Amino acid sequence: MAETLTGGCGCGAIRYESTGDPIVAFNCHCRACQQYTGSGFVASTLVPSATFKIVKGAVREYKTTGENGGEIFRGFCENCGSPIATRLARLPQVVGIPAGSMDDPSYHKPTMDLFVRDVQPWDCMNAALKKIETFPPQRSD
Ligand SMILES: [Zn+2]
Ligand SMILES: [Zn+2]
Known about the structure:
By secondary structure, the chain is mainly beta. About 5% of the residues lie in helices and about 40% in strands. It has one helix and eleven strands. Strand 8 and strand 9 form a beta hairpin. The protein is globular. The protein binds zinc ion (2 copies). One zinc ion binds near residues 28, 32, 42 and 115.
């Protein structure tokens, strides 16, 4: 039985709920994720889109295109700017949830660092996590 994940943005306008089991969790250090978060990386847990829902408010999105041509729709709250949910055009079955938006951010249990190529000198990574130069294997198509 999956534990229900709840969370939302900083101003409270947006709330979400996810009842499915998390699929994978990672920290992505690519430049686009740095811009999305205003920090060194996005801590993202992928959950099934079928069991994820916005229960309050509306998410706005902007689009970035990865180096592999994959389109990424980065959701945020238009009032406070908090990152909320990310959709990948090539993986419509998942939604990426930024750990900081979770009511309990310890739900995020990353297993790998992505785009370590773009890690900033002031960004300290957990040595125990698998290091991947750019894309994870399943997204390198
Ligand atoms: Zn907000
Ligand atoms: Zn990234």
